[in-house]
Amino acid sequence: MTSDNEIIRRSWDNPAVFAEMYDRHATSVYRYAARRAGVDTADDIMAETFLVAFERRNRFDSAFESALPWLLGIATVLIRKQRGSEARFLRAVVASGPPATVVENHDDRLDADLSIRALAGAIRKLPARDRDALLLYAWGDLDYEGVALALNIPVGTVRSRLNRARRVLRQSAGVAPAQEVDRGRTSTAPIVR
Amino acid sequence: MDELQLLRSFGKDVADPSAEALSRGRRGLVEHIGQQPAIARPNSKKRIALFSGTSALAAGALVATLVFTDVLGLAGWQGGADAAAASALGNAAAAAIENSDPVVGPGQYLKVDTEAAFMGQVQNADWENFAYLESQNLQMYVPADHSDEWVFVTEPRAAIKVFGEGFEEEAQESARAGFEEEQISRAPFGGFDNSKPRGWRLDELPRDPQRLLNYIYRITAGHGVSADGQAFDFISTTLRTGVVPAELRAALYGALAGIPGVEITDEAATLNGRTGVAFGREEEDGFLYEIIIDPDSGLLIGERIVQLVDSKLVPVFAGEIIGWTAITTTVVDEAPPGGSLCGNGGEPVNGLGSGQCSDPNRPRTD
Fold first, then answer.
1. Among residues A45, A60, A81, which one ends one of the domains?
2. Looking at the 3D structure of chain B, how many domains does it have?
3. Do A175 and B2 touch (CB under 8 A)?
4. Mean pLDDT in chain B?
C-alpha cells in the first residue's frame, strides 16, 4: 500500500488524491474526537481536521510514513479551540457518570463508574498540554514518538508530561500503580523544529 | 486496573462515525479540494501520432521533431474561436505589442496586485446550506533581481456577498477562518513557504501563436474537463501571474483565438473599475469561463466565472458571477516590511527548498 507521506507528496501536484487520507484515517480521528469531546462534536472535528490538513499539507513532515499522528495533532488543536465542548463533556461525566455506552457491562461496573468520574474530574483539571499528551497516548493510540510528532515536541517532553499526568490521575482515581507497560520506544526520534 | 487501563476502557466502545457523517465529511473535503486551482504539468510521455506508412521510422522521427517543436499539433484541426472573437483578439495582441512593458529598475519591484473572489459553499451543523463570495486578495512584489527577496502579502479574507438569508455571520466566520490576519512571506527567488525557487519558465513558451497553442494542447493533454477547456485554463493561469511580457501576451491572445468555442461574451465587462472585452468559453461542467482584456492597451484586466445552471442546495442561480480575479501590475520602489520565509510563523524544516515549514499554530516545547 502506498504510504501516507507518498500520497501527501502526490497531492501537491494532484490535490484530488488527498481524499485518500480521509478514507484511511477519518474513523480514527472521529473516535479520538468522540472520546475527548463527545459524539456531538466529533463529526465536525473529523470533517474540519481534513480540511485543515489539506490546507497545511505542505507542512507535513514527509520523513514520517504515517499521517495519523499529524492528523490527531490537528484534531487536538481543533478540540482545544472548542474547549467548551470538551469541558462540558467532562463535567457531565463527573456529574452523572460515563454515558452508558462507554463502559462494558461487567461486574465492577459501579467501581469503574466511580473511578471514571474521578478520572474525568482529574483530566479536566490537568494543564492543557499534559492533557493533550495523555489523551493522544491513551485514546489516540499513539506511541511516545507519535505523541511527540502530533504535538511537535521532543520525545523526552512527552515522557515527562505523561508521567506527571499519570501521577495526578493515580492520586485522584485512587488506583494502585501497576507495572508500567511502556509502549513508547526509547529511541530518540527526530524532532520537527 | 491501573489508571491507564481505566482511562483506555473509558470510551473504548465509542461508536464509529455514522455513514452519513462520514460521507458528509468526505463530500466537504472533495468540494474543498475541487476549489483549488489545478495546475497543468508538462507530460512529455503523451505524443500524438499523425503518420503511418512506408518509412515509419523516418516519419516517426520527423513527427517527433515536429511535435516537439510544436510545428504540428492539435491547434486548428477543429477550427478556432468565432470570427468576431478572433478578430478582436488579433487587435488586442497588436495593442499589447505596441504598449511596451513597464521597466523595473534596479532596487525596484514589479508589483502584481490580485483582487479575487471565489464562492464557498457550506453546510452547517443544522444541515442548512448557504454560499458566499469570499475575497482573496494578494500582492506579490517581484524584485528586479530575482535573487533578491520577493515579498508576498496575503490579505485577511472576508465574505463580500452571502447567498441565503440569515447566514451573514456564519459566512463571515467561515470566510475568515484561518485567514484572520494579513500574512507576509519573503523569500529569494519567490520560494515562499520554503518552496523551490519560483520559475514560471515563460521563456520556454513559443512566441508563435499556432506553435504556442500546439505546445499548450500537448502539455495539458489528459487534464481537465475537455482539451479545449484545459487549453483555455492554461492561458488564463499563465496570464494571471501578471508577469507575462508583452510579446508572449500577444501570442497567448493569438492562441486563445485558436480555441474552438471561444466567443465574445461581454463587449463591456467591468472588473474592479476597469472595463474590457470578455472572451468566454462555456465548459461542459456548467460554467462560463471568461478572460477580460482591455482592447485599447492589450492589458489583461482579469477573469470571471459565471454559473450557467441553478444550484440545487443554495440560492445561486444561472447567470451569477461566482468568481473573479482582477490583476493590476505596476512598478514600485518599495515592498512592505515584515514576514519571513515561512510567512508570519513557523520555520523551514527538512532543509531549504523542501517545501515544508513547521506549523506555528501547533504547540511547541515547554
1. A81
2. 1
3. yes
4. 83
Q: Are residues A1 and A77 in the same domain?
A: yes
Q: Is residue B366 part of a domain?
A: no
Which residues in chain B belong to E strands, given as ranges? 109-123, 129-135, 138-143, 149-154, 158-163, 183-188, 263-271, 274-282, 287-293, 300-307, 321-332
Tell me if B52 is assigned to some domain.
no
Cβ–Cβ pairs < 8 A, chains A and B: 164
Mean pLDDT by 10 residues, chain A (193 residues): 84 83 94 87 90 84 85 89 66 57 43 67 83 92 91 88 88 54 36 36
Look up the CATH number of the domain holding residue A41: 1.10.1740.10
Q: What is the pLDDT of residue A106?
A: 44
Would B175 be classed as within a structural domain? yes
- Same domain for A73 and A8, yes or no, is yes
Q: Which of B54-68, B311-325, B340-354 has the lowest mean pLDDT?
A: B54-68
Q: Which residue did the predictor score with more confidence, A169 or B232?
A: B232
Shortest Cα distance from B14 to chain A (angstroms)? 6
What is the C-alpha to C-alpha distance for residues B321 and B310, in angstroms, rounded to an integer? 12
Which of A29, A43, A119, A130 to mutate against chain B (most B CBs within 10 Å)?
A43
Q: What is the mean pLDDT of residues B335-340?
A: 90
Is the distance from CB of A51 to CB of B28 less than 8 angstroms?
Answer: yes
Selected residue with higher pLDDT from B126 and B99: B99
Domain at A156, CATH number: 1.10.10.10
- A121 falls within a domain: no
Contact residues, B window 195-214, toward A, CB-based 8 Å cutoff? 195
Domain enclosing residue A64, as ranges = 1-81
Q: How many residues appear in chain A? A: 193
Chain B closest-CA separation from residue A92 CA (Å): 14
State the cell numbers at B1: 486496573
In a domain, A88, yes or no: no
Q: Cell 523551514 belongs to which residue?
A: B348
Cross-strand partners of B261: none
Question: Angle at CA B6, nearest 5°, toward B1 and B11?
Answer: 150
Q: Which residue of A has its CA nearest to B7?
A: A138
Chain B residues near residue A129 by CB distance under 8 angstroms: 363, 366
Which stretch of B99-108, B323-332, B352-361 has the lowest confidence by average pLDDT? Answer: B352-361
Among the partner residues B4, B5, B16, nearest to A31 by beta-carbon distance: B16
A90: in domain? no
pLDDT in tens, B263-279: 999 999 999 899 999 99
A178 contacts B9? CB cut-off 8 A: no
Tally the domains of chain A.
Answer: 2
- Cα–Cα distance for residue pair B269/B265, rounded to 1 Å: 9
On whether ipTM exceeds 0.90, the answer is: no
B343 within 8 A of B184, measured Cβ to Cβ = yes
Residue B49 domain flag: no
Residue A41 lies in a domain: yes
User: Which residues, numbered 5 to 34 in chain A, qualify as contacts with chain B under a Cβ-Cβ cut-off of 8 Å?
Assistant: 12-13, 15-16, 18-19, 22-23, 26-27, 30-31, 34
Q: B169 is in which domain, residue-wise? A: 81-332
- Give the residue on B whose Cα is nearest the Cα of A41: B125
Q: Compute the distance between CA of residue A27 and CA of residue B274 in angstroms, rounded to an integer.
A: 50
